Amino acid sequence: LREQISEYQTTHDQLQDTKEKLRIQLEVAEESSQKFRAVFEYSPITVALTTLPEGTFSEVNQAFIDMFGYSRDEAIGRTTVELGVWLHEPDRERYLQLLKANGHVYNFETEMRRKPGEVFSVLFSGVQLEIAGKSSVLSAVMEITEQKRLQNQLLQAQKMDVVGQLAGGIAHDFNNMLAGIMAAAELLKRRLEHDDKNSKLAATIIEAATRSADLTSELLTFSRKGTAVSSPIRINDTIIAVMSLLKRTIDKQIQLTSRLDQGNPVIMGDQTQLQNALLNLGVNARDAMSQGGTLTYATTVKTLDEASFHSMGISRAAGRYLEITVSDTGDGMTNQVLQHIFEPFFTTKGVGKGTGLGLASVYGAVKSHGGEISVQSQPGAGSVFRIFLPLVSGDPNRQNIPDEAVGGSGGILLVDDEEMLRSVGRDLLEDLGYTVFLAKNGEQALQVFDAHREEISLVILDMIMPKMGGKEVFLRLREQSPDLKVLFCSGFSREGTGDELVGLGANGFIQKPYNRNDLSRKVSEVLGSA
Q1: Which of 514, 525, 417 lies closest to 463, judged by CA?
Q2: What's the CA gap between 48 and 72, in Å, rounded?
Q3: For 375, phi and psi rounded to 5 degrees?
Q4: Which CATH number fits domain 411-528: 3.40.50.300, 3.40.50.2300, 3.90.1150.10, 1.20.140.150?
Q5: Distance between CA 395 and CA 388 in Å, rounded?
Q6: Is the Cβ–Cβ distance between 368 and 273 less than 8 Å?
Q7: Domain range list for the chain
Q8: Using one digit for the tens of pLDDT, what is the confidence trace for 244-295?
Q9: Which residue from 106, 113, 111 is spatially nearest to 148, judged by alpha carbons?
Q10: How many CB atoms lie within 10 A of CB 375?
Q11: Which of the listed residues 24, 206, 418, 470 has the most CB atoms within 10 Å of its CB?
């Protein structure tokens, strides 16, 4: 009996010990469960538990509720297909295939849909688990919509830069050819002064060359290599002028309205470039409203910080800006079209109805003024273009330049690697009364100047030439004659190297293609300067 009692006591002690151990284990398990629940529930990353292969939600955390917009009761017990969270069914099938093959999937990029229907980009990760003998998937979802937007913005900026360089190079070569055509046609017209029939043909050539030059100017504006004449501009006056032009061309079904800042804000810029940019936006809006609608120009002065710009997808320093808004109630644009609208030669219009340079030149004009442009649009909901330009104080100061040729005398050395431009350039300058010396490259220019330095008062120097470029020629000429007057010319603008050389003491710049009057006035201005 004592032995049995002793055995019972031992068994009792063992049971008590086991009970204590079980209690401790249960407490540890409960603590672990609470920790897991806390991590699961309060994780900033969206986490969900679903069954395989049905994809039924068995648990979701608060971040899931916030991201997708479904409450816990709406999600649990329903499948991903029933909720419609996957935007593309092929993506869901491919994700499940990878999961079954590897047991896990990390950073699967796809697009998903919130309860209200909004589409967003995510990185989707999942790992296959066995829970209570059932196959389950623990999934984590990280939204990358903003990262994708910034990435696309960077890629678009890089692409626009490359396309801009290409467009600028094409425009430069065209300007060289147009300079020869325009100069030869002007000389021909003067020689046919008493031959009305042939004089009209020459005038037609001049007009066609001028219109072609305007086209290359738009290309240069897009590539930010166009000539900009900077002066204070009252932007409201510019908009009123643009609206006046549009009133004569738009359909009567389109209502033209404005909301202009009462202060009539002033910016620094090129009056022609900005007017053309605003006109292009208006014409585009008109074309998007074939059934009528409302086109609105608005201006307002805003003090914006970097966060405000960032929310609009723009990277700018904080400061006071003029916001110009051009909005319409037209057809709107798809996301696919929005990705290309500022590219040169991209157009949604029919053949012969658009060059595809309108919005490209708008983009270039805004950028050349140190500004930013953004667009919001949806099919059927119209479009809103927003332009942000730095504000200045001051009044517009426009000078009227006489539109007649100015003759002169003296020797001019014309340096250009294009034989056609040397030939017609000589004829133009001789027609104006000057003695002309020619050089086809930088080395020959130095030789000609050395031989005729007493006769040469001015050098007209092409900026871009093989072997020895305009900058090196300029510096070498100034070594020989520090007071020598030099006028640069190029199919590009004075941007970059031209500005640098003018800063070093060059006397001016003229952009190809130039006409007889422009050339005569520029030469007279340089020769008349102290």
Answers
A1: 417
A2: 11
A3: -140, 140
A4: 3.40.50.2300
A5: 19
A6: yes
A7: 1-30, 43-143, 155-222, 231-390, 411-528
A8: 878 877 888 889 999 999 888 888 887 778 888 898 899 888 888 888 899 9
A9: 111
A10: 16
A11: 470
Site of tokens 């086809």: 440
Range 43-143 has CATH code 3.30.450.20: yes
Mean pLDDT of the chain: 82
Q: Which residues neighbour 437 within 8 Å (Cβ) at sequence distance 6 or greater?
A: 411, 412, 413, 414, 448, 452, 455, 456
pTM of the model: 0.47
CB 265 within 8 A of CB 389: no
DSSP 490: E
Residue 39, classed as helix, strand or coil, is helix
Alpha carbon 245 to its chain's center: 27
Q: What is the structure's pLDDT at 501?
A: 65
Q: Do the beta carbons of residue 311 and residue 386 sit within 8 Å?
A: no
Q: How far apart are CA 55 and CA 85, in angstroms?
A: 11
∠ CA 173-179-182, nearest 5°, is 140
Q: What is the 3-state secondary structure (H, E, C) of 413-442?
A: EEECCCHHHHHHHHHHHHHCCCEEEEECCH
